[in-house]
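Handout, section B. The chain below has 215 residues.
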Amino acid sequence: MTKHRIAIADDHRLVRESIAGTIERLGDYAVTLQSSNGLELLATLQSNDLPDLVILDIDMPGLGGLETLEQIQSDFPTLKCLMLTFDHDEQKIIRAFRHGARGYLLKESSPEDFHHAIQSILQTGYYYNEMIHQAMMREPVAERKPEGPRLTEREKQFLLLLCDPQEPTYEQIADRMKVHKGTVDGYRAALFDKYSIRSKTGLVLFAIKNGIVKI
């Protein structure tokens, strides 16, 4: 079975090797690239086959994780990135997602949470947990137009309801929109197709990142 390829950038060698060891023990993944900072990672990505996922430390000398993330999204827009840090700073969480991060995890997390984050990003495109949810829900976002195809008014309404903190089901959303659930499923499918999103979490983060939801 082909293993998913993982790249790691962290300026602490012991931490980096510990992360690599944890990943290798999971069985389904192979650490193919290790870098000590963002500049080294970007140079390595330019000269090698791209991995399936990059795990980025936020605080690195030279070029930090958030700056590296921005450059990755510019140079390799399809490359998925998981931010890994000791930092609970909500502004960094928000900035990371606005610049294309697919997940944000604390280094103190359990191996099980780490495995879940990697698995979730590779399978659905995003990893979303309570810490991320709380940071997003407290952040006021200025309204701006999302990149890509234009949203219809009903799609916007669907996204607003989807991001309700009460987390309504699709059936409840259909009831509030006064349409059949099949119609709501159609909105969801259209958004998945328009913006290459594969999960409910992805839709929520898309709506927040693009200012569709004012929170």
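Note. Residues 153-209 form a domain with the Arc Repressor Mutant, subunit A fold (CATH 1.10.10). Compare this with the example in section A.
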